[in-house]
Design a protein that fits this description.
The complex is a heterotrimer of chains A (about 290), B (about 300) and C (about 325). Chain A is mainly alpha-helical and about 290 residues long. Chain A is built from ten helices and no strands. Chain A is elongated, with a radius of gyration of 23 Å. By secondary structure, chain C is an alpha/beta fold. Classes of the chains: A mainly alpha (about 290), B mainly alpha (about 300), C alpha/beta (about 325). Chains A and C meet through helix 7 and helix 8 of A and helix 2, helix 4, helix 7 and helix 8 of C.
Chain lengths: ~290, ~300, ~325
């Protein structure tokens, strides 16, 4: 073989990990901890999250029985916090997944069929991008009332237009020439082309978008729950707890501080990971 | 040029149509409007009369057109709580909201944009890092948390400022500060990355290699080009002047449009919710349109070509 | 001469192009009335410059695009409409080799997986059989299984094209359309890949449509050569004969421009005028503005492809018209 061959250094395409910055390590640890909590919430909580302890109402954090204190009904703040984390993360993951799938599918449909369908999808993305999500979410909640599946579905409509734009753009350029056309003329069905070839190639960009959308979903859901319009009691979420804690901000600020801090650190952690991933996976996005 | 504007106006009109359709669909899907507005205990004759009066027995596309024309005429229903026309209720509250959002907008711009520009020009410096950290804080700390923290510090612990209501100008301070800080952080981050992207372009290097003084490079080349994407986000912020303070108004019990919306949603006062939704849509669309017009003037590429964008 | 595997009857395809937002749309006749037959086991070389329509012809022959008029028959049956199930099944019998091998491969998959893909698509054999076939294909293009484990980015241009070839041959097709398969490769590699192609053709009895602007390469592998200009065939004949004695002025210019050992560089014909623009086709003979020997008739009447003895056909008034007898052939 007389062809010049390239060095084997580039044989496997892999995310090489020279040194992960400390901040990212901390962020990942936090997120892992949150996930563990979400999975095991009820098992590791010292008390039931609706369990009342009327003799110990509004006790301050730091005592042995209630590490993070209790709220106005004597419910253990720590236990409620753990369960809240689970619910908030559940909603956030569910919503992000729905949003990513819906957005990517619509983007692919627009890229594949072009014409009227594409214009329609573009119109929808414009519409979604130009209206403040909070207002539309409130309108839907007013009309449809409230339930957990509805809430997840509603939050799932957050940010889909970003995925749709990316998926459409990248699919169009992949379709124009190159491997997509080559595989198509091998006789592959469109489904195979999109799922086995185009999707893996744009996955890194989509993942970066996900890390941007995820914290915003958490914030959005917290905001709605804070207003009393999101997660309804007896279920509890981080925003919910802050909403409750608001009334007692003078006497028992810890009720509000614990969930608020959790919201902020979790959002921060995901953002940090997202920025780092973007730098690693997609230098073209700088 | 004319074609560019025509497309933009077309799109704006289409967005409004979509919002109206959205409201209509959601309204119809969520249940029988008659039952919702009159309540389940109303006697059947009243319900039947209501349906007839509102044309609820007509075919659906007929209702849609009716709905459209009603909206166009400004008949947006009456609030269930006090029976007054919804639009009156909403319009009453606008000044209160603007009293918060207009000053906040001013501060956001005055703080955020210079901070972002400075950070971009002195990349990697202490100020840049400080700006970035504040910006990240602004992004990750939701407005209600910030509001409550400010209340905790300034109202509860220090007792300097009141924590709710609209009784004096001092009551407006904390809400305005909350809105400004959050928005300034977003603007700073955005402006910084827009500037950085422009500064990384080859023509900037060429200009300074030609010997143009750095100050002039920045003011004549970098800033105008970075202005273009910044105008978009400013446009978005202007569009949310009316309803951008939903959470803040709720925290501070400030009687503006945002608070009205939250109460209306909680009470399922559909007429009011619908009214606010449409109002917000109109403002967003108008401000986006203005931004698009500005683009047409700011971006010489659009001026020259006059065509697709 | 074996039975024709591919019969192309008078295909035409035009696109409409709009100049700017408000401009009128003009019809671009990419391919205009092209007819070809390719006998089984033989190679037809299609030559022309950019804009001649040879790539579009290749795509239509393969069935990737439907012609506006005319018909393509493969093994006696018309090719199915693109995108249908029948069309996808037909792909197992006919394949395309592209100009840019890196673009034709998915960067994220090892090349062995990609060679295997046609087998997966058409459900050929068991997984063990497919793995064996992949090894066999790699051998046939003179690569090793170690090469198969690599990603496209880690291979050289020539190796990538071999992979593309291996993938195209996976389902044992009868017909290959090669669209400028070696133009993107270094000159020294070009010869290797073309030789490989010729060997494989001999071994497997492949029928080829070989499209290129490079005469030397076309000459190496073709039995019959057709020359295209602005969407039409201007000359067609057996390869050696056509290059030794080109009749059409355009072919003569092409042949004189390509260096061949043993031929003097004197007598090089240089064409004047602008390169052909498919959107602005001249009246009459499309070549007449650049033709050094154009006559009055060439500007008004389009010449028709006609036989001029042996298996040669030429579309030129000078050759086939009444003046032919009074002019010297080049």
């Amino acid at each position: 073989m007389t062809d010049a061959t390239l060095k084997d250094a580039g044989v496997r395409r892999r995310i090489s990990l020279p040194a992960i910055p400390v901040s990212v390590v901390l962020a990942i640890s936090w997120i892992v901890a949150m996930l563990v909590i979400a999975a095991l919430a009820e098992k590791i909580a010292p008390y039931g999250y609706t369990q009342l302890d009327l003799r110990n109402r509004l006790s301050a954090p730091g005592n042995v029985a209630h590490w993070l204190g209790t709220d106005e009904l004597g419910r253990d703040v720590l236990s409620r916090l753990l369960v809240s984390i689970r619910i908030s993360l559940l909603i956030a993951f569910g919503a992000t997944a729905i949003s990513a799938v819906v957005g990517t599918t619509l983007g692919f449909l627009a890229a594949h069929f072009r014409g009227v369908i594409e214009q329609f999808v573009l119109m929808l993305t414009d519409f979604q991008a130009s209206m403040p999500f909070l207002i539309m979410a409130l309108a839907v909640l007013a009309f449809f009332g409230n339930s957990l599946p509805l809430l997840i579905g509603l939050m799932g409509m957050f940010g889909w237009e970003r995925y749709a734009r990316i998926a459409r753009g990248l699919a169009i350029s992949a379709n124009a020439q190159g491997y997509a056309a080559a595989v198509r003329q091998l006789g592959a069905t469109p489904a195979r082309i999109y799922l086995r070839h185009i999707l893996p190639n744009i996955a890194s960009t989509l993942i970066v978008s996900t890390t941007l959308v995820f914290p915003e979903v958490i914030l959005m859901e917290s905001g709605l729950s804070f207003l009393g319009l999101g997660v309804q009691p007896p279920m509890t979420s981080l925003g919910n707890m802050v909403g409750y804690g608001r009334e007692y901000i003078t006497r028992a600020p810890w009720i509000m501080l614990a969930p608020a801090t959790t919201i902020v650190i979790t959002t921060l952690a995901v953002s940090v990971i997202g920025d780092w991933l973007r730098d690693r996976l997609d230098p073209t996005l700088q | 040029m004319g074609r560019y504007f025509a497309i933009r106006i077309g799109r704006a009109a289409l967005t409004i149509v979509l919002v109206v359709t959205f409201a209509f669909v959601v309204l119809r899907l969520s249940g029988d409007p008659a039952l919702m507005i009159l309540g389940p205990e109303a006697p059947p004759e009243v319900i039947a009369a209501f349906r007839k009066a509102w044309g609820l027995d007509d075919p659906i596309w007929f209702q849609y057109l009716d709905y459209f024309s009603a909206i166009a005429k400004g008949e947006l229903g009456r609030s269930m709580r006090d029976g007054r026309p919804a639009i009156q209720l909403v319009l009453e509250r606008i000044p209160a909201t603007l009293a918060l959002t207009l000053p906040a907008f001013f501060f956001k711009v005055a703080l955020g944009i210079p901070a972002g520009i400075y950070a971009a020009l002195h990349r990697g410096s202490g100020i840049d890092r400080a700006v970035m950290m504040t910006a990240v804080a602004g992004f990750t700390v939701p407005s209600f948390v910030l509001a409550l923290l400010l209340v905790l510090v300034f109202a509860v612990q220090l007792g300097w400022l009141p924590s709710g209501g609209q009784d004096s100008w001092r009551h407006a301070i904390l809400p305005i500060v909350t809105l400004s800080l959050g928005g300034a952080a977003v603007l700073a981050r955005f402006t910084r990355s827009a500037m950085l992207e422009v500064l990384g372009q080859p023509y900037i290097r060429t200009a300074s290699a030609k010997g143009v003084p750095w100050r002039k490079v920045v003011t004549s080349h970098a800033l105008p080009n970075a202005a273009i994407p910044t105008v978009t986000i400013l446009g978005f912020m202007v569009g949310t002047l009316i309803a951008g303070a939903v959470v803040v108004e709720s925290v501070f019990s400030w009687p503006g449009v945002g608070r009205l919306l939250v109460v209306a949603v909680a009470n399922r006062d559909l007429a009011v919710v619908q009214c606010i939704l449409l109002l917000v849509a109109m403002t967003m669309v108008t401000s986006n349109l203005i931004v698009d017009f500005l683009y047409g003037f700011l971006d010489p590429r659009l001026r020259a070509k006059g065509a697709h964008a | 001469m074996s039975a024709p595997l591919v019969e192309v009857s008078s295909i035409s395809r035009s696109y409409s192009m709009r100049s700017g937002m408000f401009g009128r749309s003009t019809a671009v006749h990419a391919v205009d009335g092209v007819s070809l037959t390719i006998p089984k086991g033989e190679t037809l070389g299609l030559v022309g410059e950019s804009g001649s329509g040879k790539s579009t012809t290749g795509r239509i022959v393969l069935g990737l695009e439907p012609p506006d008029r005319g018909e393509v028959r493969f093994d006696g049956k018309p090719t199915a409409a693109p995108g249908t199930q029948a069309w996808r099944a037909q792909r197992a019998h006919m394949q395309m080799i592209f100009q840019d091998p890196l673009g034709a491969l998915d960067r994220r998959l090892p090349v062995a997986t990609q060679i295997r893909e046609p087998l997966d698509i058409h459900g050929v054999g068991t997984p063990a059989e497919r793995a064996e076939r992949v090894r066999e294909l790699l051998r046939s293009v003179e690569l090793t299984p170690a090469h198969g484990a690599r990603y496209p980015g880690a291979l050289s241009g020539g190796q990538r094209q071999r992979i593309v070839l291996a993938r195209a041959l996976a389902t044992r097709p009868d017909f290959l359309v090669c669209d400028e398969p070696v133009s993107a490769l270094d000159v020294s590699i070009q010869a290797q890949v073309v030789n490989l192609l010729a060997d494989l053709q001999a071994q497997l009895g492949l029928t080829l449509l070989f499209i290129s602007h490079d005469l030397r390469v076309v000459r190496q592998i073709s039995n019959v050569v057709a020359v295209m200009y602005l969407g039409r065939i201007v000359e067609i004949g057996s390869a050696d004969d056509l290059f030794a004695r080109p009749e059409h002025p355009y072919t003569q210019a092409l042949v004189s421009a390509s260096p061949a050992p043993g031929r003097r560089s004197a007598g090089r014909i240089v064409l004047a005028g602008d390169p052909p623009n498919p959107a602005a086709r001249p009246q009459g003979c499309a070549f007449h503005p650049r033709c050094p020997r154009a006559i009055a008739r060439c500007a008004t009447e389009t010449p028709v492809l006609s036989a001029v003895g042996g298996d040669r056909q030429v579309a030129c008034h000078l050759v086939t018209g009444p003046q032919a007898a009074t002019l010297d052939a080049a």
